[in-house]
Amino acid sequence: MQQRTALILSFENLLTRNLGRRLKVDEINKLTEEDVEDIFQQEYLILSGKASIATINFLGTRIEQIEKAVHKAAKLKSEYKLLMTVPGIGKILALTIMYEAGPMERFAKVGNYTSYCRCVGSERISNGKKKGKGNRKNGNKHLSRAHIEAAHYAIRHYEYVKRYHQRKMAKTNNVVARKAIAHKLARACYYIIRDQKAFDPGKLFAHKIAATVNPSYCWDNHAT
Which ranges of 74-158 would DSSP assign to H, the alpha helix? Predict the structure, then answer.
């Protein structure tokens, strides 16, 4: 997944640098090598673009095969389907959180879980001044990545999450805004696993919600 994401970003940069245009990730995922010939004019750009798209598509096929094999072998717990009601969480992210989180009884409260997921800051503040940072590598890197990825997908495909992200962006930068959503989703997962209840968007996003997802988007095929 990391290699495929890096190649998608590389192709995006190729487009931006040479043509001054951008394509959405979903649009890049649909490209074929023949499509690249219609995008670029110079031969060296066509060759570079084709190489990227061919590798992206190859890795996509292999990732799907691996995901199917993993899902087939996995021993599912009761919270598995409940976790997939959270925006941005599909089969693989649900499996990751289900296995890595463990029983919620081992966390005294929700803040302990979000800290374990590396979804809270590690700054030390004294008298309103920053005095240093704690060990940011404490906690579970797999849960951290899972919640960040869920936030990424949720922003792209859930309008109410996108609006929340835009309000955060007006006050801070993209990294902090995305981390704030990951923190919210981590809190949701804590209560879902602990209470065995489906996700309720109204409890996390207090403003008026139109809880709709892009109808052309399928979590089973894309949210990993």
Answer: 79-83, 91-101, 110-116, 141-157
Q: What is the pLDDT of residues 88-123, one digit of tens each?
A: 999 999 999 999 998 999 999 999 999 999 988 655
Task: Tell me the two tokens of residue 68.
Answer: 């199917």
Together in a domain, 142 and 189: yes
DSSP string, 8-51: HHHHHHHHHHHHS----HHHHHT--HHHHHHH--SHHHHHHHHH
Show Cβ contacts of residue 35 under 8 Å, excluding neighbours closer than 6 positions: 53
Nearest one of 71, 91, 100, 92 to 190, comparing CA atoms: 100
Q: Are residues 136 and 30 in the same domain?
A: no
pLDDT at 193 over 70: yes
| Amino acid (1-letter code) at residue 45 | L
> Nearest 5°: CA angle at 142, between 139 and 145?
100
What is the domain range of residue 35? 2-73
Tens digit of each residue's pLDDT (9 = 90 or more) over 136-159:
667 899 999 999 999 999 998 899
Q: How high is the pLDDT of residue 120?
A: 82
54 and 116 belong to one structural domain: no
Give pTM, 2 decimals. Answer: 0.73
- Of 10, 41, 73, the position where a domain reaches its end is 73
